[in-house]
Amino acid sequence: MPNNQKKTPFRSPQADSRRTTGRRGGPAERVPAPAGRPTPEDAAPAVERPRRPPTDLGKRERHMVAPAKPERLQKLLAQSGIGSRREMETLIGEGRVTVNGETATLGQSASPGDRVKVNGRLVNLKFSNRLPRVILYHKPEGEIVSRDDPDRRPSVFTSLPRLSGARWVAVGRLDFNTSGLLLFTTSGELANRLMHPRYQLVREYAVRVLGDLGVEAQKRLLDGVELEDGLAQFSSFQDAGGDGANHWYRVSLFEGRNREVRRMFEAVGVTVSRLMRVRYGPFVLPPNLKRGQVQELDDAVVAKLMAEFGLEAPERTPVKRRPR
């Protein structure tokens, strides 16, 4: 998917006064946005979902399905959220996948009703007759993007809608002390493409630093600074104002290395005191999406997203409901 080079504004969302106990409270700090920037037309529409739904949202009647056909095993496992297609090929090659009790082979297909296990655990297969789910999540500071944390810190996955027979796959990560936009999907294959470097998806951040940056330091950040894991540079850098010692900037780059934005500012002698991701590729953090809440993309947007990334969307027919 080509990146839209149009600059995108962002208004910091207001705080969620109904946040659960234990989550950091207080109103969301307003991030100064550069003046005169056009309203984005590429922000994906979304349908808001409750943060903690009382029922299982994995079974949705709004989906439209078609009869399932046999599909390649590695593709099935990837779109079922187990991992990328390449990772599934590795698991199959290592003999860690079985179909109906028999060790699977590369290129093998599976059909509805087959019992597929990975490392001895039964997998609920997601065939291509159903679109994957994609949600936007406004991550607050103080949450980790992991299901397994030895320190038992709060995880983003406890704030997501519950699923039946599937799991959420994070599209990239944000540091524990970084807030902002995170994408999740039930398709490992779609997540892998959204993260793959060849698609060059832009990541845009609002950054608050202690003090001001000189012109020379800004130029270095655009030209590139040498980090321990290689050269890093911003594709755009804009002053967003601020009062006193706290100054805001808007920056963007086309990769997502560990703590990359913070390390880049540290390389020019400046400390980041607040970091918020406001855009990932075509998706902009909705101004009305409060911290700790999710919004789900509708089927039309998901189907378009899959087509733009070269993934086949199912031909859908309405689900026939049983008469009462």
TrEMBL record:
The keyword Transmembrane helix does not apply. Transmembrane segments: none annotated. One of its GO terms (molecular function) is RNA binding. Residues 71-131 form the RNA-binding S4 domain. The keyword Isomerase applies. It comes from the Bacteria. Residues 48-59 have a biased composition (Basic and acidic residues). This is Pseudouridine synthase. PANTHER family: PSEUDOURIDINE SYNTHASE FAMILY PROTEIN-RELATED (PTHR47683), RIBOSOMAL LARGE SUBUNIT PSEUDOURIDINE SYNTHASE B (PTHR47683:SF3). Responsible for synthesis of pseudouridine from uracil-2605 in 23S ribosomal RNA. Keywords: Isomerase, RNA-binding, rRNA processing. GO terms for biological process: enzyme-directed rRNA pseudouridine synthesis. Belongs to the pseudouridine synthase RsuA family. Residues 1-65 are annotated as: Disordered. NCBIfam families: PRK10700.1 (NF007976), pseudouridine synthase (TIGR00093). It comes from Propionivibrio dicarboxylicus. Its EC number is 5.4.99.-. CDD domains: PseudoU_synth_RluB, S4. It catalyses: uridine(2605) in 23S rRNA = pseudouridine(2605) in 23S rRNA.
